[in-house]
Design brief:
single chain; 176 residues; alpha+beta; Arc Repressor Mutant, subunit A; Alpha-Beta Plaits; 4-stranded antiparallel sheet; 7 helices; elongated
């Protein structure tokens, strides 16, 4: 356990100094491999090895280790949503009546069931959650907000922001 000073929480700099946010299992080669794979998950070990000036076998073994240790969670196809169907993206700021563990857990379980919710974050500040919602149109969002989110028993309020234009949408995780 980490030592707690007079404050209940350690400062972020104290946490950084303890190294809990640093991942010492990743070296420069691992980070390079991850960078290549997150740009194109179909890149084969031979191609990665050529890019890094290595041989195929150690690169393949590193990729398998990164998968086994959970650094690589999954391989996915990123779809061009504009070619599939017209949709709108809405950010829904949700607050609960009270921040009780059971209410939060119930909210989590309900939100996981809604296919319209593509991302859900617990946030600090004025709201408790930030949902990224994708629906067909404004009417669909109205139905979603009214009949799914606002009807949950613990909801204190919902505010919405509609995306007018997407300037940047990246799936790349910064490998700091």
């Amino acid at each position: 356990m980490y030592k707690v000073r007079n404050n209940i929480f350690l400062g972020i700099f104290d946490l950084l100094k303890t190294g809990i946010f640093m991942n010492e299992k990743l070296d420069a080669i691992d980070r390079a491999i991850l960078g290549i794979l997150q740009k194109d998950a179909k890149t084969v070990a031979k191609s990665i090895a050529e890019q890094l000036g290595l041989t195929k076998t150690p690169v393949y073994e590193r990729i398998k280790r990164l998968e086994q240790e959970g650094f690589i969670k999954n391989y996915v196809a990123i779809l061009n949503k504009d070619k599939i169907a017209k949709s709108i993206t809405v950010f829904s700021f949700v607050s609960l009546e009270a921040q009780k563990g059971a209410m939060m857990d119930d909210f989590f379980e309900q939100v996981k069931k809604y296919p319209e919710v593509v991302e859900c974050f617990v946030v600090g500040g004025e709201f408790d959650f930030l949902l990224k919602v994708v629906v067909e149109n404004l009417d669909a969002y109205y139905d979603f907000a009214k009949f799914k989110i606002a009807s949950l028993p613990s909801i204190g309020g919902v505010k919405s922001a509609f995306v007018l234009n997407e300037v940047k949408n990246s799936t790349d995780f910064p490998l700091l």
